[in-house]
Known about the structure:
Blueprint lengths: L3 H4 L28 H14 L1 E4 L5 H14 L4 E5 L2 E2 L4 E2 L3 E6 L3 H8 L1 H11 L3 E3 L5 E5 L4 E5 L9 E10 L11 E4 L5 H4 L4 E4 L5 E4 L6 E3 L7 E11 L3
Antiparallel strand pairs: 1-12, 2-5, 3-4, 5-7, 5-8, 6-14, 7-14, 8-13, 9-12, 9-14, 10-11, 10-13
Amino acid sequence: MDRAHAHGAAPGAAVATAPPPGAGLPDCEPLAAHPDTTRGRAARSVARHGFAPLPGAIAPAMLAALQDEADARLTDAVFAEQTAQQTAQQTEDLAYRAHMTGLGPVAGAFLRDDRVRGLLTGLFGGDYVLSEHISCLTRYGPADHLGAHQDSPAEDCAVTIILYLRADSPDPAAPDTGLVLNVYGETRESVARGARLRIPTRPGTLVLGRGSRIWHARPPLKAGESVVAITGCYREAAA
């Protein structure tokens, strides 16, 4: 499984195909109202770090629908694991461990929704189209992780959305918790210098970022920790 599939569907997992516009979307608003100050903070974070969180971004009814769909789909999720290979010069291949499956109709409709894509336009400029084939639903449990990487192929992952549906930990504030997304810089060397931004993993938080440009990672989850997340990769509409 290559880096495109670190956030994308695992081998053997069903990948959603695009239904007609609006199909699968519950009769509710996809996004919660956010004050201009919140979006202003997100814009500044994107400008500085390439990533930004929007806590509580998902409307409650939409979050519940996405959670219910995820619970059903994860019963057939595929376990995928890869260990990074060390060479004299650098680490080759992405280290990861998680359960993955393709998007369901509700998740796919949410990620394609004009209001959701409008968030991307507002923060990154331009217009974006969901890359269905490398978007997925993922469950992390104890010891699961996603090593430092840039999303690829870059043309299909110009920007990335990560939506946290569930997140559990006996101590989410612990310094070694796995309930965090570490964001680095644009070079592999930036990973060794440590995270420039640590985004807590909380249900209902929407993370938006330049996934193919900025290195990012999830550390191993501790005992008792779990995360369920939807990841959507987007290409530029003109690409």
